[in-house]
Hints:
It is a single chain. By secondary structure, this protein is mainly α. It is built from 4 helices and no strands. It has a single domain, classed as 23S rRNA-intervening sequence (de novo design (two linked rop proteins)), CATH 1.20.1440. Helix 1 (about 15-30) packs antiparallel against helix 2, helix 1 runs antiparallel to helix 4 and helix 3 packs antiparallel against helix 4.
Amino acid sequence: MRKNRNRGYQKLRVWNDAIDYYVQTCSVFRCLHYELRRVVSQAIASSDSVHRNIAEGYCRRSIKEYMNFLNIALGSLGESVSGLNACHKAKQISEDNFQRLDSLAFKLEN
């Protein structure tokens, strides 16, 4: 079996949690009305950016660059949570969906 060091990020708990956050975000936001397509697109894009930046940083082979990409991932998560809060306050997503995504985001932040 061939091994690729660059794929080691797939073993990281934080990367797997970020993938879960992305999947759950897609599940919640894809159910919104067509009129909110910009909101849906942004919510999915910002959650997608989290796991991608974790992976990219891991593959850079430098602690300094890795930390930089983790900071970018954290910024993307902040953007995602801000949108999540706005949609919740606008009653575009349910309390249950908000709590589920907010809990996953909190886990990623810490």
